[in-house]
Amino acid sequence: MVRFYVWISLTIVFLFKAADSNLTPRVRLTEKEVNFRKWGLPGNTVRTELLQGPQGNSLYVGGHGKLLYIKLDTSILPEEVDFPKRGDKKSSVNPTASNNCDYDITTLHIANDSHLLVCGTNGYHPQCHFVNRKPFGSFGESIAAEGIAPFSVTERAPSVYVGNELYAAANSHANGNSLAIRRLGLRSIWPDTNKKEQRYVSMVLSGPREDPVQDRVYTFLVERNSDTRPEADIWTSWVTQVCAADVGGTKSILQKSWTSRLSARLSCGIPEKRMYFNRLVDVAVLKAERWNDSMVYALFNNSWGMSAVCVYTMGDIDRIFTTSKFRGYNDNLPSARPGVCVKESTKLPSEVLRLIKDHPEMESPVEPVRGGGPLMVSHRYYRHIRVDGVTGSDGRRHRVLFLSLESGGVHKVLDHDGEAFIIAELQPFPNKTRILNMLLQSSQRKLYVASSSEVVEVDLKSCQGYGDQCVACVQARDPYCSWDRTQCTSASRNGIQDVEQGNHAVCTNTDGVASPSRSKAQKIFRWSKHYLECPMFSSHAQYVWKHNGADKECVRTEGSCLLLIDSMTPEHDGSYECVSSEGGYSSTVVEYDLETESGAGGLVASPLASACLLLLLALLG
C-alpha cells in the first residue's frame, strides 16, 4: 500500500513538472530593466515587519531592536527608534539563546492618528509600546504582551487592530502550548487555551458590513491532522470566525470567551488527480465594494514540495458558517443559530452556548470559486502572496498576484478569469536571498520586498523592461503597462493594451510594430569552430536560426539560443537570422553575415565563451 502511494505521488509530481511549463515566467526582469530603490537595514534582522505610512508615501519597518520611518518621496535618511534590550538575565525558557535579551519587533499596527502599536519579543517577555507618529519616535504607554505577541521571532502570531482593540492569535506561555484567539481592549476576550497543535497564518476583518454587529474577524490556520493513515497529510487547513460584537457568554458558560467561534475546513486540491494541498502558507485579501465579493487568495503547499493558490470569497466563507451542519451534532438546532452575531452575547441561551462549546466545527468545507479547482499549481515553493486590483487601459479591473520564491525572486501573476499567467519574474536582489516579508502599496503601485539586510521598492509601473516596440509591450499582458505610441509606460486610458490575450494585432504600423535588425558582418577563419548567439527575451516564444532560408538547430542555454558551427567552410557563408515567434507574430532578433577567409583556424569567442562552447560541443558529440 505504501509503495502504491509513493508511485502515485511520484507520478503526480512528474505530470505537474511537465505541465509546469505552462506557468513559466514569460520574462525575467532585473535592476537593469526595472526601477528598484533600496534602503539598508541595521543589525542582524531575522524578521521584518512592514507597515504603510500616511498617504502611501512613507513606510514603517520593524526589525532587530529598531523601528524605521522611511519617507519614500525624499532622499532623507530613515528616522530610527531604538528598543533597548531587556537586560542580561538568561531566559529560563531558552538559556542558551544568544539573543534572548533582544527586542525584535513582531507586531506593527497604526493604532490611531497619533500613535503606532509596536510589540516585540523583549527577551522572551513580549511587550507592546505605543509610539508617537508625529513627531516620530517618542514612547507612550507600554503593556505586557504575553498572549497577544510572539515570544520569539520564529513564531507566527497574526493580528488585526480594529477600532481601539487588538485581535491576536499567540501563545500566552513561552512553552508554545497555549495558543488562542484573543482580544485586548475595553472588551477583552481571553478564552481557554486550545490544546490542539495549531499554527496561525493570517487574520483579516470581514467587513465593514451594513450592520456593524455582523462584522467578523476571520483567522486562517493549520492544524495537526487527527487522521493517522499513512496517506493522510499531517496538517489540515482551517478558517475560524469570531464576531466583533462578541463580549463573551454568561457567568456559567463561556464567560470572557468567544460565543461565536466557529471553524471550517479550507478545501484546495484536484480530487480526480488525487492531489490535495493541506498546508496553508499565506493569505491575501482583495477587497471589493461589497464585503461578500472580497476575494481571499490562499497559498498552500504539500508534502511533495509543490505550491497551489486557491481562491475563495468572503461570501462563500460566511455562507458555510451560517448554513452548514455542525460536525458531530445531529439534533435540531436552537431557534437562535449558534455562531450568528448578536448585539448582546451575554444573553444567549445556554443551549446555544453549549453547542458552540462542544461542536465548533462545520461539517461542510469552504470550496474555492469556479468549481473548486486551484487557480494555479506549481512545482515551485512559494512563501508569500500579495494581490492587487489594477484598472487597465481597457477600464476593466484586473487581478495581479505577487508570489515570493525561495531564491529571492517574485513572480508577477495575472489572474484572468480563473486562468493564471506569469507575466514576469522580478529579481530585486542580485544574489539568492530569503524574502522575509512583502508589502503592497496599491495606491502608489509599489511593492516593498524585505530581506535580512535591506528593503527594496519595486516600481510596478516601470514598464520599459518589456521592450521598445508596441508588440513587446502588448504581449507582456501586464495591466500596469500600455503602449503610448512612443514607449511602453504606465497604463493610461489612451494606452494600447490587451491584457486578456496579448494580441499583437492591436498595434498598427505607426505604433512601432517592429524595428529592422542590422546585419552584423563577420569574417571567420576556415576550419574554425564558431557560434552565433541570440538573446531569448521571452520564454514563451519559439526561437529558430535561419541560414539562407533553411532552419538550423538552436541550442538553448540560460537566456540564449546558440547556433554552433563545428568547422567553418565556404558552405557556411551567407546570412543567418535568429527569428522569434510568439502569439502569431514573428520578428528577427539578430542577423549576421558570415564569410570564410583563409588563415589559421580557431574558436572565435571570448575565453569563457570558448570553454562553454567546447563543453557544449562535447556534450553534443
From TrEMBL:
Occurrences of domain Sema (ranges): 26-460
Boundaries of every Ig-like domain copy: 516-595
Signal peptide: 1-21
Listed Gene3D superfamilies: Immunoglobulins, ligand-binding face of the semaphorins, domain 2, YVTN repeat-like/Quinoprotein amine dehydrogenase
Pfam family, one: Sema
PANTHER family: SEMAPHORIN (PTHR11036), SEMAPHORIN-7A-LIKE (PTHR11036:SF144)
Family membership: Belongs to the semaphorin family.
The name this protein goes by in its record: Semaphorin-7A-like
Organism: Megalops atlanticus (Tarpon)
